[in-house]
Design brief:
The structure is a homodimer of 228-residue chains. Chain A is built from seven helices and eleven strands. By secondary structure, the first copy, chain A, is of the alpha+beta class. A four-stranded antiparallel β-sheet of chain A has the order 1-8-3-6. A four-stranded antiparallel β-sheet of chain A has the order 2-7-4-5. The structure holds a DNA duplex (30 and 30 nucleotides).
Chain lengths: 228, 228
DNA sequence: CGGCGAATTGACGGTAATCAAGCGACGTGG
DNA sequence: CCACGTCGCTTGATTACCGTCAATTCGCCG
């Protein structure tokens, strides 16, 4: 795959689900000019906490996690992003997050300064980013409630329900390891594992041998567990 | 005090620290026309989770907390606002938060629909709101780290350091009760109280009899505790 | 088959929640 | 003026949940 193909925005996979959905084809041309595609493998670090914040990007495909780290090295995942999501902090001097690809991910990169210029010219783009940022803020606040107040079992239950909301079927393909889930939910690997086992014993979920594919057999039971 | 005095924006207390700082006097006139001041007493509920989200506001003076509630009634404060901060969700259909005044608070209210119209006419205003929203998102993510990973002592220490950052002296007037602090830090009243007494015994802080006025005697010690 | 990393399971301990009592400040009314 | 009730804070005793440490087990690939 060639590193750059800005002219193909009109048949981009996320043409209608990303920030770009706010622009018509003509308007999109200006963004097109400054964009550059880049594939990153699972595990790759996209940006470092404290870096100079030179880039913004749309996620074309794949998924990644946003992380913060304490002084003594503990990690907390503060957000998950996937197809159509935006990453970056326009108008901020330095990044405050580390982003790591959970799976092979295709990014559509924009130099931050250029992106800011385009945004100033395209009010609809700025509006779309504002709405997206407010949604992210709501999610981050919802997660504060989860992390501060919910039991381990309730966190796992909410997590599975969140994943179910996207796919409409009764089964979920976990995009991440037990360790990643723990980082996201503020739990250890062991606790995550134990909760999965208990849900299986209770007949609420079933998992394949790898543990990555979960089928939810009793959604109602999960929902009642989700706010302990 | 009259309920409405839109023409006095130019000598408003938060003329230069709120969203309004993004506008020149002439531009501010349009906002002025749709604004209405309102004083609310400590403890007053500003908006309910699930309400119709009809209002936005700047906080002129005072302070308030933003709360979420679990299905079974536990509460979590997901943000604190004070002078110059903005509250409201333009372009969203329903509010997802309950706001409660921590002290007597003066609001500068805008009907949401009108505010959205002014924002569309004033790109600088929209830009300012975007930057403010991104800052709030960073704070919310920082708090995820605190709530998920830090010990009770570290949460209290970080909390005090946050308050110190604003006032420049070595002492802090707590704007809230032990219970409010617990709601904010994801702890119980008892745990908050115990941590304060331990910090006092260690000679790191001193408090008056009411416990609301704290003087920090050893900032370095607090900082080293802030990431356990 | 052997080796490796991820996931599971078990035993134990620590931290903070829970339950319960007591204290101090303040305001009201007798 | 003092008795009394209330409210917020503090302190104590006990418990439960989850983290830590450690040992297997499982799945995968060479």
């Amino acid at each position: 795959m060639t590193p750059s193909q800005p002219s193909h925005c009109h048949d981009c996979l996320i043409r209608d689900s990303s920030l770009c959905a706010s622009l018509c084809d003509a308007e999109l041309a200006t963004l097109s000019k400054i964009s550059r595609r880049k594939a990153v493998p699972a595990g790759a670090v996209i940006s470092w906490e404290g870096d100079d914040n030179a880039l913004c990007a749309n996620i074309v495909s794949g998924s990644l996690k946003l992380m913060k780290t304490t002084a003594d090295g503990r990690e907390q995942t503060v957000g998950l992003l996937s197809d159509g999501d935006f990453i970056g902090q326009p108008f901020a001097e330095s990044g405050s997050l580390t982003a790591i690809a959970l799976s092979e991910t295709m990014l559509c990169l924009y130099p931050r300064a250029s992106f800011e210029r385009v945004m100033s010219d395209q009010p609809k783009l700025e509006r779309a980013l504002l709405e997206r940022t407010m949604r992210s803020l709501n999610e981050a606040r919802e997660r504060q409630l989860t992390l501060a107040r919910k039991s381990a079992k309730a966190r796992i239950a909410s997590f599975l329900l969140d994943l179910l909301r996207d796919r409409s079927s009764g089964s979920v393909e976990l995009p991440m390891s037990r360790g990643d889930i723990g980082d996201y939910l503020g739990l250890t690997i062991e606790t995550v594992s134990r909760q999965f086992t208990e849900l299986k014993s209770a007949g609420i979920i079933a998992a394949d041998r790898g543990g990555r594919s979960i089928s939810v057999d009793d959604v109602a039971a999960l929902q009642s567990l989700a706010d302990d």
